[in-house]
Specification:
It is built from 14 helices and no strands. The chain is mainly α. The model has no long low-confidence stretch (mean pLDDT 80).
Length: 362
């Protein structure tokens, strides 16, 4: 979240930040493809430990960067690869512990933990360094957090999670079959909604600075809204029709983006828009994730989760290249219009799932 501010402090622009996000995505997407094979051969615990180790190394390199040189590129490449391994392994392990009935609930809890951490980061930075951010300390703390994740995984016994899917016979040409199946629709939605997430979060610091507001307001309200909605509503919504819920939440995300057009009018409108985005996106993401897994066959589950991660990460790290250029050439209002158009496309994919409303919900 602080990468865009870090780049600006070194004399770069939003386009440079977007390029670095894309470079990080190269590491992440490569790691996702490698992890897809690793999860078929090794327990998810060891894949997660590998990811935490790589991320820790990348964060330590970034903590020693003071200029826009090749070391910065290496650091973001490694942090992206480490996060890709870890993010791919953890949902797969969670899917082994859940059923179709409660998977949406636990994915909500899992996503709430992730958002809590990503949201607390910028908030802590703001209050720790209200005037001048010490990025060396920030990246060192990120490395320490990854080390804590690594140590926590060492305490997990592999027999506690029976990886039965790893021993099922694999079907050939999985990717081609999935792209011709209904699974492609939630995967496409994952990509499009991740574009919203990456732009509204990674460029929020610079956006708030442009409109003269405090970026900490966004991260505090957004994080609280995401976590509260997932913890308080996740279990209740899991008993509702997930396919109908996807359509409703997609519409709400589109509306919440529109509210940011008036965010510069007052602090309260900025906070209200942040809360609306937090609730709507916060519930949409795990819902789409659960639908993706539920629509897949058990023997395809590890592959599907890898493709889910791939769709998510390619948007998170590659779209800022386009988004940064949009900001530079059309401003943040142009970006908001672009994001709303992406959500309308996502709504079209959600509508493609409408037949499951009758087949599986009533």
């Amino acid at each position: 979240m602080s990468l865009s501010m870090f780049v600006l402090s070194l004399g770069g622009s939003e386009e440079v930040s977007g390029g670095l996000f894309a470079l990080s995505g190269v590491g992440t997407i490569t790691a996702v493809f490698i992890c897809k094979k690793l999860l078929q051969r090794f327990h998810g615990k060891y894949v997660g430990m590998l990811g935490a180790s790589i991320f820790c190394l990348g964060a330590l390199i970034l903590s020693q960067v003071h200029h826009l040189k090749w070391e910065m590129g290496l650091g973001v490449l490694l942090t992206g690869a480490g996060w890709g391994c870890f993010f791919n392994a953890m949902p797969y392990m969670l899917s082994l512990l859940t059923t179709q009935q409660n998977r949406s609930v636990f994915f909500n809890y899992f996503a709430a933990c992730i958002v809590s951490a990503t949201g607390l980061g910028p908030i802590c930075i703001h209050f720790a360094y209200p005037e001048h951010i010490h990025f060396a300390v920030v990246f060192a703390m990120a490395g320490l957090s990854a080390l804590c994740g690594l140590l926590s995984l060492t305490r997990l016994e592999t027999h506690q999670i029976q990886d039965v899917c790893r021993h099922l016979p694999k079907r050939s040409k999985t990717f081609q079959r999935l792209m011709r199946s209904v699974v492609m629709y939630p995967l496409a939605m994952t990509f499009l909604t991740a574009c919203i997430f990456t732009m509204m979060n990674n460029f929020q610091m610079t956006y708030a600075k442009r409109i003269g507001l405090n970026y900490a307001d966004f991260y505090i309200v957004y994080t609280l809204a995401v976590v509260a909605s997932r913890l308080l509503l996740g279990k209740w919504l899991a008993s509702r029709c997930q396919y109908l819920l996807t359509i409703v939440l997609t519409v709400l995300v589109t509306g919440s983006i529109a509210l940011f057009f008036w965010a510069g009018d007052s602090h309260w409108m900025y906070r209200f828009a942040s809360a609306a985005l937090g609730v709507s996106y916060g519930l949409l993401y795990p819902t789409v994730q659960a639908i993706t897994v539920n629509l897949a066959e058990p023997e395809d589950r590890s592959e599907v989760i890898s493709y889910f991660s791939f769709a998510y990460f390619i948007a998170v790290f590659a779209f800022p290249v386009i988004g940064g250029a949009i900001i530079v050439h059309t401003g943040y209002h142009g970006l908001l219009v672009s994001l709303m158009l992406l959500m309308l496309i996502s709504l079209g994919f959600a509508w493609k799932l409408r037949k499951y409303i009758r087949e599986r919900c009533f």
